[in-house]
Specification:
single chain, 270 residues, alpha+beta, Arc Repressor Mutant, subunit A, Beta Polymerase, domain 2, four-stranded mixed beta sheet, three-stranded antiparallel beta sheet, 11 strands, 40% helix, elongated, disordered N terminus
Length: 270
């Protein structure tokens, strides 16, 4: 019959890992470590989950719940997303609302956690404790990614300039144009105009660049941020496009240098 000590072998191991600054683990890792039967391992993990010592994020991927996060049942995704994506063997960066908040656009703290990755797609992680949403992009440049320090290590995050472009491209995923306007209004303070041009050159979506330039200049009055972007854009082939994709326009006339058809009237909440 197992002793009380043997029941705690995993918990003791996880305490040791935590002391080393490691806050996540996989079922396979425990199987290799302890050479125990799958049934016994499942029981041990279930016991720790019931005690609130660990939380399951994805099949076979778990995180340790430290005392300061026991009230919410899981630590913030910032603290384990890098380990999760390494476990999944996927290149990634944290983007959209979370990246915007990290760069100072924290007017509304995001409830969901947004991760940008390449194909093949992953199903969103949605449970009572956390929501992680995965969005797909074909590619990105390392020059547009920054490393941010967290409690547990470092995380890949889109730069302010790449974040701005992504917010425009994924506007339907973040709550629409009005929320986009508010986020860009906050983010504009840390956007570097020269770096924005470099990020735009890497982006590959001309219509996104047109919409961002229009938003910065015509909606938010940050012409000084958008002028260098237009200097690059005017050397490219670009055509008329609507401000809000998927919404019909009453007319197709444009009276602005970005060739944006105004089919919506977004406003910042600031």
């Amino acid at each position: 019959m197992p002793t009380a000590t043997s029941y705690n072998y995993i918990e003791n191991y996880l305490d040791q890992q935590q002391s080393r600054g490691i806050y996540s683990f996989t079922a396979d890792e425990l199987k290799d470590k302890f050479k125990t039967s799958p049934k016994a391992l499942i029981k041990a993990i279930q016991r720790l989950k019931l005690k609130g010592k660990i939380a399951q994020v994805r099949k076979e991927f778990y995180v340790i719940v430290t005392p300061e996060y026991s009230h919410r049942g899981i630590m913030p995704a910032w603290n384990y997303v890098d380990a999760l994506m390494k476990y999944l063997k996927r290149d990634y960066y944290v983007g959209l609302l979370n990246a915007a908040a990290m760069h100072g656009a924290a007017h509304q703290q995001p409830q969901d956690f947004y991760v940008i990755m390449k194909k093949p797609p992953l199903r969103d992680i949605i449970n009572k404790k956390t929501v992680i949403r995965f969005s797909i992009k074909k590619e990105w440049k390392k020059a547009d990614i920054v490393e941010k320090k967290t409690e547990t290590g470092y995380v890949n995050v889109s730069s302010p300039e790449l974040t701005a472009l992504d917010l425009v491209f994924f506007q339907d995923s973040i709550g629409g144009l009005s929320r986009l306007a508010t986020l860009l209004d906050e983010l504009a303070e840390v956007i570097d105009a020269a770096k924005l041009v470099k990020a735009a050159k890497h982006y590959g979506q001309i219509t996104t660049i047109q919409r961002l330039g229009y938003m910065l200049e015509k909606v938010l009055n940050y012409k000084e941020k958008s002028d260098p972007l237009f200097d690059w854009l005017k050397e490219q082939k670009y055509f008329s496009t609507v401000l809000q994709p998927g919404k019909k326009a009453r007319n197709t006339r444009t009276n602005n240098r970005w060739k944006i058809i105004k089919n919506a009237s977004p406003k910042s909440d600031l």
